[in-house]
Fold these 2 entries.
Entry 1:
Amino acid sequence: MRITQSMLSQNSLRHISNSYGKMGKLMDQLATGKKISRPSDDPVVAMKGMYYRTNLTELEQYKRNLSESYAWMENSEASLDHVQSLMHRASELMIQGSNDTASPSDRQAIAKEIEQLKEDFVQVANTQVAGRYIFNGTAIDKPRITDSSNPESVSTENLPFEIEVSRGIKLQSNINPDNVFSKEMLEMWNGIQTALETSDTESLKDLMGRFEKQGDIISAERSELGARYNRLELVDDRIAYQEVVATRILSDNEDADIERVITELTSQESVHRASLGVGARIIQPSLLDFLR
């Protein structure tokens, strides 16, 4: 086959163009820090990247769910602690009111404080987190108690409010409100207030026993909440580990090895300069050079 000057020139220009393309790709990797800038650069890397990103997005959603569950449980724990403090104070006041040395006016004064404790109890029962009532089962848009003087106004919703904290794992984030903010509990508060106002010490002593039993139920509910909180922390640790692994895998799949890219770019620049030098000599001869 006859090799012509035109063939040499065209081949030289084609190789120089390819060299520019390689340098451009390496410079893009150096600028973006990524192996590819478009799916067509490497479809396998692109497809894996989509899968890994989906996994990371899923983990980020679970982290948001965990934060919400933490908020519900921590507010529930604080509320139960506050309720137990209210009940402890009410028990002290009932002991004072049931004492034979207490006068009717003394009991009236104690009844006033009991009323304030009851109102505080109702306020705790209607606790909201991010605009949602956390002590009314799944009816998160309705308050638990609408009228502190009417036990019939207490909601009977008690379904567990579950949040998905990991794939296939839903964890109850609320307590059983029937064990704490029930109709019977509000009846006891109103009964204590009425017994003090009317100096009915017999009813007051009976209510003291019921109040103590209710305190044990609340303690048990608080213990169960603590157990679920511990499990939530375990799930949180596992999600955090999965996120680290998923991020590393995504980085291995997409991130460019900067040291290698710099080395290859330097090498390609040397090859490109050599190609330009050789190409200049090949393309330079003209017809006059052949006629000499």
Entry 2:
Amino acid sequence: MTTKRLQGRIALVTGASRGIGRAVAKRFADEGAHLVLVSRTTAALEELDDEILQATGESATLVPADLSDFEVIDHIGASLFERFGRLDILVGNAGLLTTLTPMAQVKPNDWDRVIALNLTANYRLLRSMDPLLRQSDAGRAIFVSSTVTQGTWPYWGAYVVSKAGLETMVTTYASENMKTSVNANILNPGPTRTGMRPVAYPGEDPETVKPPEEVTGAFVDLAEASCQLNGEIIQVESQTTK
């Protein structure tokens, strides 16, 4: 019998109820991981858990939460420590894109929401989960970025800033862990059929864009204990934005 690539690993996935997060959760479960799934939508989490249970015979740990409430993240970390004592894989996937507009016209509330979820929440995740990742024999942190960090992307405003900041944060964290068992990397999935994409490309035929299931292999590669990459920005595709 072939050993599953993530057998026995504990993996936390944010933004798990739809899109890339949902696809990654199902793939990780198929590879033998125990999933801790975080999303604001309880019903969608329960539906995903039913699918995982049917496919694998194992239930996930469900965490309905709004990551913009930063104190909730600390509670999640404390709960994981009490239950598992460690975390093997962290996938920071939850993200937000608001209406495209010139930088000087970005509404302050939109700016605050995007920076809070795309950047600050991921900092709080690292801060809270770092002790748990260090308890793993091979802690692996994976954060989802975008092609907007490359070149110039007019009208993408806070989203560009948040993803550029995320990449700098993760590569800094990775450099600080070069002599530890914790690795951190960034994955740019390229154009992917998600609920976020129509905000930027409202007239696009979704069938012309790859489904999120096609990028899950890259997440597994970075999540494996044998993966030695650290501080890398891995691009699945780079023709356009996520």
